[in-house]
TrEMBL record:
The gene is LOC110792758. Residues 147-296 form the GST C-terminal domain. This is Glutathione S-transferase L3. The lineage of its organism: Eukaryota, Viridiplantae, Streptophyta, Embryophyta, Tracheophyta. It comes from the Eukaryota. PROSITE patterns: GST_CTER, GST_NTER. It comes from Spinacia oleracea. Transmembrane segments: none annotated. Residues 88-169 form the GST N-terminal domain. Gene3D superfamilies: 1.20.1050.10, Glutaredoxin. One of its GO terms (molecular function) is glutathione transferase activity. InterPro entries: Glutathione-S-Trfase_C-like (IPR010987), Glutathione-S-Trfase_C_sf (IPR036282), Glutathione_S-Trfase_N (IPR004045), GSTL1/2/3 (IPR044629), Thioredoxin-like_sf (IPR036249).
Length: 300
């Protein structure tokens, strides 16, 4: 069992990486420089994100599926030139730490669109002014530049990418499942509010507990797989980045194990961790917990 140094519970240990990601350079006769840095400080868990330091250097890693894992570009900041906007390239503007952007990034990966949709990470704390002025006036991430238009809102974007791009469908054709997806997409706002309502309070309140009960019940709805709609879908993608943040924060700060006595949630977490397109987007858990602690510093 992995030891995390943060007292993670048994049901949750599978959520955490056990060792540093293995970087295997392709083409050994023509070695590719794996000139990458981590966006995180060294600590007990392996950083998942490998950020390229120089744009001319390429590198590749092979996860267990054999699919190429990309080395990620460095975030652009206020000193960075804009990309050549509206030149026909489809660009996904994200921040590596944003859970909303992560939804769209996962969707892009799971559909195998790494070549078709170029990632443009931004440093949100030192945002380039051209982003608001010329790309996306709401000045938030994610946004998608495609066919001379820029659109935003993560839930709209994951549906847009799923229906307008090649790759495996991430939305079921079964009308009952489609209906339930609507329920779960709508529930997300209440869920997020209910879970974070405990963050500034002592302990974990009943609202938070009820929200996880709701999720556990939802996972019982279809029995043809461990995901919200049975098979893996956009609904799992919508929730995963938030669970990724809630789980370690609640466990570390509140000693609250989200998956305790919740076998469906425990199984869902385990299965999500096997999705390559998601794994490639997972960020550093200790950093997440630290940033949540800073944000919710009173009475945690
Ligand atoms: N409802 C939006 C929320 C996006 C959002 O709030 N993104 C944050 C980063 S996690 C952001 O860009 N914040 C910048 C700001 O508000 O200035 C979505 O689902 O895409």
């Amino acid at each position: 069992m992995a030891t995390t140094g943060m007292g993670y519970g048994s049901a949750l240990t599978s959520h955490f990486p056990k060792s540093n990601s293995l970087i295997i350079s392709l083409l050994p006769s023509n070695p590719i420089k794996s000139n990458t840095i981590s966006i995180v400080t060294p600590h007990f868990l392996s950083p998942r994100l490998k950020i390229q330091t120089k744009s001319i250097i390429t590198a590749a890693t092979i996860p267990s599926t054999g699919k190429l894992e990309e080395v990620l570009p460095p975030p652009l900041d206020s000193t960075s030139d804009p990309p050549p906007l509206f030149d026909g390239t489809t660009r996904l503007y994200i921040s590596y730490s944003c859970p909303y952007a992560q939804r769209v990034w996962i969707t892009r990966n799971c559909k195998g669109l790494q070549d078709e949709i170029k990632l443009v990470p931004l440093d949100l704390k030192n945002r380039p002014s051209w982003y608001k002025d010329n790309v996306y006036p709401p000045n938030k991430v994610p946004s998608l530049e495609h066919n001379n238009e820029v659109r935003g809102e993560s839930l709209d974007l994951i549906k847009f990418i799923d229906s307008h791009f090649e790759g495996p469908s991430l939305f079921p054709s079964d009308p009952m499942k489609q209906d339930f997806s609507g329920v779960l997409f709508s529930y997300f706002g209440s869920f997020h509010k209910a879970v974070t309502s405990s963050f500034k309070e002592e302990g974990v309140n009943a609202e938070t507990g009820a929200a996880f009960d709701y999720i556990e019940d939802a996972l019982f709805k279809f029995n043809d797989g461990p995901f919200f709609l049975g098979q893996f879908s956009l609904v799992d993608i919508a929730y995963a980045p938030f669970f990724e943040r809630y789980i370690p924060f609640l466990l570390d700060v509140k000693k609250y194990d989200v998956a305790a006595d919740k076998p469906k949630i425990a199984a869902w977490i385990q299965e999500m961790d096997k999705i390559e397109g998601y794994k490639q987007t997972q960020t550093d858990l200790k950093l997440l917990v630290e940033s949540y602690k800073k944000r919710f510093s009173t009475n945690v």
